[in-house]
Amino acid sequence: MLLDVGHLGQNIYLIASHLKLGTTAIGGFQDIKINEILGIDGLIESSLYIITLGKP
C-alpha cells in the first residue's frame, strides 16, 4: 500500500509540473487530527501522505 501511495504522489508531482503548479509533500503530520478533519475513522481508512499544490 505504501508503494502505491508513493506512485500516486509521483504522478501528482508530474501532473503539477506539467500544469506549472508548485508541489511539496508534508514530511510529518498528526494523522489523528487529519483523520478527524477528513471524517475518517483511522482504522478502515487513514491518512498516509499529504501533498500541497499551489502557484509558486
Description:
- The protein has 56 residues and is of the alpha+beta class.
- The chain has one domain.
- It contains 2 helices and 2 strands; from the N terminus they run H-E-H-E.
- The chain has a two-stranded antiparallel ribbon.
- One of its GO terms (molecular function) is oxidoreductase activity.
- InterPro entries: Bacteriocin_Proc_Enz, Nitroreductase, Nitroreductase-like.
- This is Nitroreductase domain-containing protein.
- It holds the Pfam family Nitroreductase.
Shape: globular
Structural class: alpha+beta
Mean pLDDT: 93
**Unreliable parts:** none
Q: State which percent range the strand residues make up.
A: 5-15%
Strand order of the largest sheet: 1-2
SSE arrangement, N to C: HEHE
The value of Rg in angstroms is 13 Å
The share of residues in helices is 40-55%
Q: What is the total number of structural domains? A: 1
Q: How many individual β-strands?
A: 2
Distance between the termini: 30 Å
What oligomeric state do the depicted chains represent?
single chain
With helices defined by DSSP (H or I, 4 residues minimum), what is the helix count? 2
Largest beta-sheet characterization:
2 strands, antiparallel
